[in-house]
């Protein structure tokens, strides 16, 4: 069990490394300094360096669980802390805990837990993703049908809160009108489209109304065919919107992933995990609403054999992009940090290692395995190594 480092209350420190990727450029033999959790300087190293690569911390905007816990099952701050700890081992330094389709009371409890975490500056929690409940039943996947419903004043009250950080909501545009999407955007909600059987025109109308993203491209959305481009067709053809992709080797054939990489402009595909409870554990099954989800290797399925989220972590997704899809390392790293920061409009403070940004950092070995993770200049995973004293 790792612990959050609270010894350096001034939150000041430095790291000297042989290689640093700032989100745009690579630097050799540099030291990075931070104060009050923010980067204040990056300069040539004055002493010995650690032979490792420092990169921007990963930002995962779809995280259902980790460390053995599912946010839906126990929407509390303690759960959030466990989930962040589990994912920080794999380089995630900022996440949107994700509540899938559930009762209004679970949504309210989740919002309260997020608000508390943000008020007390719990490391790694930057907002919340409500995936549902305004979805299309034919494309519900493992979401419980009994909680799928139209958007009402009760949910608007949650989405309108200003104490829960970044707000992302996944909706099916055949059940949420352009006028409602405009209302959500006015409430500073980032609207994503998914779990939908909508035709292309309906999807385009949702984009025109202010939706900006697509949730787990290809999965649980109307497919692309010759005369019915569906949600997949719009998602691939649209230049401005972004798509979350689950690079676990199960949610998307490598060729389908390559089509997406070729179709979307740089910056518009971003890595998400859609991670469930077992990430960071050896658990082989977990309770999921009234049923069970089982893990076989790196795959999760429910009682009906449907894919039920993933046991993916961000570092594995980065490695998959590089190894299986031949994405250049710079680009794979940006898909895990800068691009999600841009999608969430927090790229003024996160997603790059530059002066003024949060000291959210991951130290990788040459195989892209995570050695250390730092959130706001605090070591949250790995052991601190004496890199600066010679
Ligand atoms: Zn989903």
Characterise the protein shown here.
The radius of gyration is 20 Å and the shape is globular. Helix 8 (314-325) runs antiparallel to helix 9. Mean pLDDT is 95; it is low at 1-9. A hairpin with a 2-residue loop joins strand 16 and strand 17. Helices cover 25% and strands 28% of the residues. It has helices at residues 77-88, 104-119, 153-159, 178-186, 200-208, 230-237, 254-263, 314-325, 329-336, 338-343; strands spanning 13-21, 26-35, 38-44, 50-56, 58-63, 65-66, 69-70, 92-100, 127-131, 166-171, 189-193, 213-214, 242-245, 269-271, 285-288, 291-296, 299-302, 307-310, 361-364, 370-375, 378-381. The protein has two domains: 13-56 and 352-381, Urease, subunit C, domain 1 (Roll), CATH 2.30.40.10; 58-343, Metal-dependent hydrolases (TIM Barrel), CATH 3.20.20. With 390 residues, it is an alpha/beta fold. Strands 5-8-9-10-11-12-13-14 form an eight-stranded parallel β-sheet. Strands 3-2-1-4-19-20-21 form a seven-stranded mixed β-sheet, with helices on one face. A four-stranded antiparallel β-sheet has the order 15-16-17-18, with no helix packed on it. It is built from ten helices and 21 strands. The longest helix has 16 residues, at 104-119.
CATH-assigned homologous superfamily of the largest domain: Metal-dependent hydrolases
Structurally, the number of domains stands at: 2
Look at the helices and sheets and give the structural class. Answer: alpha/beta
| Rg computed from alpha carbons, rounded to a whole number of angstroms | 20 Å
Largest beta-sheet characterization: 8 strands, parallel
Note the gap between the termini.
30 Å
Number of beta strands: 21
Q: Average pLDDT, to the nearest integer?
A: 95
Quickly name the level 1 CATH class of the largest domain.
Alpha Beta
Number of helices: 10
């Amino acid at each position: 069990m790792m612990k959050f480092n609270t010894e350096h209350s001034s939150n000041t420190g430095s790291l000297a490394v042989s290689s640093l990727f700032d989100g745009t450029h690579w630097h050799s033999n540099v030291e990075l300094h931070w104060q009050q959790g923010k980067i204040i300087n990056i300069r040539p190293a004055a002493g010995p360096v650690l032979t490792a690569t420092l990169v921007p911390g990963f930002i995962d905007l779809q995280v259902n669980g980790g460390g053995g816990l599912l946010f839906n099952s126990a929407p509390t701050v303690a759960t959030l802390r466990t989930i962040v700890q589990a994912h920080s081992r794999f380089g995630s330094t900022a996440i949107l805990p994700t509540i899938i389709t559930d009762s209004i009371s679970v949504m309210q409890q989740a919002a309260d837990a997020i608000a508390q975490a943000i008020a007390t500056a719990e490391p790694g929690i930057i907002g919340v993703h409500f995936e549902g409940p305004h979805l299309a039943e034919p494309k519900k996947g493992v979401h419980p049908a009994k909680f799928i419903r139209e958007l009402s004043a009760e949910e608007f009250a949650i989405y309108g809160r200003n104490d829960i950080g970044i707000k992302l909501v996944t909706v099916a545009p055949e059940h949420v009108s352009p006028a409602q999407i405009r209302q959500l955007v006015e409430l500073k909600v980032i609207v994503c489209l998914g779990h939908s059987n909508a035709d292309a025109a309906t999807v385009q109308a949702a984009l025109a109304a202010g939706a900006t993203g697509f949730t787990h491209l290809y999965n649980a959305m109307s497919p692309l065919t010759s005369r019915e481009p569906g949600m997949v067709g719009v998602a691939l053809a649209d230049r401005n919107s972004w798509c979350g992709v689950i690079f676990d080797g199960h949610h998307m054939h490598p060729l389908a992933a390559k089509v997406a990489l070729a179709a979307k402009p740089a910056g518009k595909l971003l890595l998400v995990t859609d991670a469930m409870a077992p990430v960071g554990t050896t658990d082989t099954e977990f309770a999921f609403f009234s049923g069970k989800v089982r893990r076989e290797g790196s795959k999760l399925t429910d009682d009906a054999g449907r894919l039920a989220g993933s046991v993916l972590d961000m570092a594995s997704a980065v490695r998959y992009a590089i190894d299986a899809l031949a994405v250049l390392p710079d680009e794979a790293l940006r898909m895990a940090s800068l691009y999600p920061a841009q999608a969430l409009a927090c790229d003024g403070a996160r997603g790059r290692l530059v002066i003024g940004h949060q000291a959210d950092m991951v130290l990788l070995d040459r195989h892209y395995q995570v050695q250390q993770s730092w959130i706001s200049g605090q070591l949250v995973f790995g052991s601190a190594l004496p890199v600066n004293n010679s």
